[in-house]
Amino acid sequence: MPARKRTAVLISGRGSNLQALVDACRDPSFPAEIVLAISNVEGAEGLARAAARGIATKFISHKDFASREEFDAANGLRIFGQENCSTYTPPCCRRFRESAYTARRSTPA
User: Fold this and answer.
1) Same domain, residue pair 5 and 32
2) Does residue 69 share a domain with residue 49?
């Protein structure tokens, strides 16, 4: 069986998508393991949810950056270990297209 991909999850609130991924990771054939949860919301419930499951957490305040691009670049550095790699810019998305995936809630909260 191939090694699981070490995966970081960006969250902003309750962590419902994070929980779905954590649940999926219980299946030995699931190709990922969640190793980090990052939020720009201090005290986000999802960070506590991740910590309770032994997943590392990081709070990065978007208010500490002059622009969204700088904030995204900080996330890119934290996740991919690459400077000048914003999590949402085309160059970073192209570079990591095999390892980046976005999940959005599709039902109302």
Assistant:
1) yes
2) no
* Whether the predicted model's global pTM rises above the 0.70 cut: yes
Q: How far apart are CA 24 and CA 57, in angstroms?
A: 19
Mean per-residue pLDDT, 91-99: 56
Residue among 50, 54, 53, 61 nearest 15 (CA):
50
Domain total for the chain?
Answer: 2
Per DSSP, the residues of 21-64 read: HHHHHTSTT-SEEEEEEEESSTT-HHHHHHHHTT-EEEE--GGG
Q: Are residues 11 and 30 in the same domain?
A: yes
Per residue in 49-61, pLDDT (tens digit) is 999 999 999 888 8
Give the H or E element holding residue 74.
helix 68-80
